[in-house]
Amino acid sequence: MEIIISNLQEKMSFTPQMEQTVIAVLNKAAEVYGLSEQTEVSIVLVDDEYIFELNRQYRDKDVPTDVLSFALNEGDEPAIINDPAAMLLGDIVISLETAARQAEEFGHGLERELAYLTLHGMLHLLGYDHETEEERVKMRNEEEYILSQLGITRD
After folding, report:
1. 108 is in an annotated binding site
2. Which end of the chain has the least Cβ crowding within 10 Å, N or C?
C-alpha cells in the first residue's frame, strides 16, 4: 500500500513511533480487506483550527473534530491510477490536538488513539459508516478486530 503522510501542524510532536503505528494500521487494514499494493491513501495531521475549518466547510459543523475522511470517489468505484490494480482511496485528516485530549480522556496513550482514528478514517474510505446503530456496531467490531490483530487494545 502506498501511504503518504503529511504533518501540517506544529503544535505537537509526531514521532517516528507514531508514524510506524499509522503505517502498521493502514497495512493491516489493506491486508484484511485484500487491497492491492498499488492502493494509495494519504494521512494529513493537523491542529484543531485546521480541522475546524474543514468540518465547517464540508460538514456544516461549527466544531473541531478528531478525524475526517475524504474518499476520492465517494459513492463510486475507487479511482484507478494508470493501473487496473491501483486505487486512490482518498485522504484521512486527523487532529493531533483532539487525539491527545481524547487519549487522556479515555485513559490510554496517544499512540493508541492515533491508531484508532487512523483505522476509523480508513474504514470510512472503504465505505463503512455509523449513522445507524447497526452500522455503528459493525464498524466498531471491524475496528476492534483489526486493532487486536496488531495487539492494540483498549487496555
Report:
1. no
2. C
